[in-house]
Amino acid sequence: MTLLRARNLVKEFDVAGTAGLVKPARRFTAVDHVSFELHAGQTLALVGESGSGKSTTARLAARLVDVTSGTVHLDGQDITALQGGDLLEVRRQVQMVFQDPFSSLNPRHTVERIVTAPLRYQKRPVPGGVRTVARSLMERVSLNPDHSDRYPAQFSGGQAQRIGIARALAVGPRVLVCDEAVSALDVSVQAQIINLLRGLQAEEGFGCLFIAHDLAVVRQIATNVAVMTGGQVVESGSRDAVFDSPQHEYTRRLLAAVPRIRPEWEAARLRNAGRVREPQ
């Protein structure tokens, strides 16, 4: 089932001329006719280097940024130009998890207030009371519910990102947009957050649009991959197809740049379909 469908998305920004010089403003194309589909229960990873347009594409899909042209459909409905209450419902169905957990959490609010904020903004009922809901959300992301009265600064980076995920889950979204959601975390914590997201997705069935530049992370979580450069998608397909048989030269360069402890082990892993034991 297709949850989110983007067709020929274009986003242009005005770039001001240089101060003091006779140089007119120009238009910069950040996203150039990008199309993709996201299905329920699957994770589509948009990958590419910084400046490739992947984060802007995600924001267009979530209606955080208005498109220059193209369309976005959520569950078959064109949401490209929705406003007011109709757009508020889109906000419920499409939630964001941001890169820097501390920047996206109000340092003056308790965790209880933070994770239940979407319920207040959406004017949704809170069965059992705010505290009960907050504790339940914290348990779902493996945080101690007794810490709901604490503030973001009292948590580690990984814990703070779990708070951000709990907040996103509060209104039962159908699509979760994760914009570099693990890039600021240590490798071991990244694995924990990825496992958390996969477990929640298995339970809830939401689609996940996962923005990343780290291909090692993408390989762990993605169902499908779209590779972007210069604002365009240059290759897309299933995770295994893109990683094991890349067709575009840019994709091959990205994969070649992934650090490996021992390249010969990686080659053997590919030959043996993952059944490789470390040499004694």
Automatic annotation (TrEMBL):
Q: Which InterPro entries match?
A: AAA+_ATPase, ABC_transp_ATP-bind, ABC_transporter-like_ATP-bd, ABC_transporter-like_CS, Oligopep_ABC_C, P-loop_NTPase
CDD domains tied to this protein: ABC_NikE_OppD_transporters (cd03257)
Which Pfam families has this protein been placed in?
Answer: ABC_tran (PF00005), oligo_HPY (PF08352)
Q: Does the keyword Manganese apply?
A: no
Q: Which SMART domains is this protein grouped with?
A: AAA
Q: Report keywords, A-Z.
A: ATP-binding, Nucleotide-binding, Transport
Q: Where is the ABC transporter domain?
A: 4-255
Give the family from UniProt.
Belongs to the ABC transporter superfamily.
What is the name listed in the Swiss-Prot or TrEMBL entry for this protein? ABC transporter domain-containing protein
